[in-house]
Amino acid sequence: MKKIFVIFLMCVIGTAVQADLVSQPYITGDFNGWDPAANSMVDLGGGLWEYTISGLSPGQYQQFKITPGDWSVSAPAANSWYSADATGEVTVTFNTNVESDGWLPEQFRVGVSTEPGTWSLVGDYNGWWNEDPSQLMTPLGDGVYEITQTFAAGNYLLKPTQTGTWDAIGTDGRSIDAWNYYLELVSESEVSVYVDAYAGTMKVDVIPEPASMVLLGLGSMLVVRRKKQAR
What we know:
- The protein is α+β, with helices and mostly antiparallel strands.
- The protein has 2 domains: 2-112, Immunoglobulin-like; 119-210, Sandwich (Immunoglobulin-like), CATH 2.60.40.10.
- It has helices at residues 2-23, 210-230; strands at 26-29, 42-45, 48-53, 61-67, 75-83, 90-95, 109-112, 119-123, 138-141, 144-151, 154-162, 168-170, 173-175, 181-185, 189-196, 201-207.
- A hairpin with a 7-residue loop joins strand 4 (61-67) and strand 5.
């Protein structure tokens, strides 16, 4: 009973802390000496926030986090990052809504207005080689990149990274130590991985193999047949 109460109390505290992050987020990082309460983000309404950092050198790389004004919690778990644009500015966005659009993370999405360089997919399947030329992702426009390839049946860990670095976008969002995506395949499948470098999100689509498509087709026929019989 004591253990259950402690777990319940931790969940209540965690929920309260997250509520603080939703009600008024702050941005902290290299640009302000990591003061968690120095720079409050601007409320755009509808759970969306932003903050523009200026006075940087063109292309300057820095790390940052989103906090509720203290270090009780932060988003993402590890530091996020940006590189300033040609004018020495970058706008950071923060989405506190719970989204159900198939992209990860579902909540607390950290985005930036710049996304330099190229993107690659890395994982245990290629020895975590972050400069593997076969894993370069194709730019689709508007900061979205994609790669499609065939994986054998099995379990995999993977994530999109900025090529040649460990700055990545994983299941916890845009982070220098992003959480890996766990992919489980029961048969050989074609897999498409996407990353939205502006929004700080990723998505994985598994394309059914021909045999699976046949089964899906049979299933649809049975559903139609049952509907006809029910009339």
